[in-house]
Amino acid sequence: MEPVLEHFREYYKLYAGIALVGLPPILIFRRFTIPAILYVVEFVIYAVLMHCLLGGVIRLAAWFKAESAMKRAFDARANTNPGWITPFRYFYDRALYNPPWLFYLEIALLVAILAAMWKYRPLRAQKKRIKPLTARSLSKKMAQSQKKRPSFGRK
Length: 155
Description:
Blueprint: H1 2-10, H2 12-28, H3 30-67, H4 70-74, H5 101-120, H6 135-147
Helix pairs in contact: 2-3, 3-5
């Protein structure tokens, strides 16, 4: 936590400048920017969940491979751990993935998540739907209000 605080102390003027320049357009065009920001936050949440789930599955598969190897059955000191791993912290470093194709699997899964979000939850500006008041809808409202008796405590 201390390195993060030190970084903010060192670059507070830069962040203040970015906030002064970035906040007015976000607030002025909030009908478009707030849904886009929430869409990105939703994608990041899905990506983190996918990364953690994939890392857990890979670690479970490595453990299962190590514990179920016949070499291990005959020699308890044999190291049969394949060393499969996806890094939790430095997920962007390709050298830390073992086997290396796991990095590309994560990229493919991220693209699949983005495609599913685009198909099932497309990004669009939200509008309030205002139904036009027609003679028929006005007569329905009037009829409903006449059916309800005002309650004054008497019958």
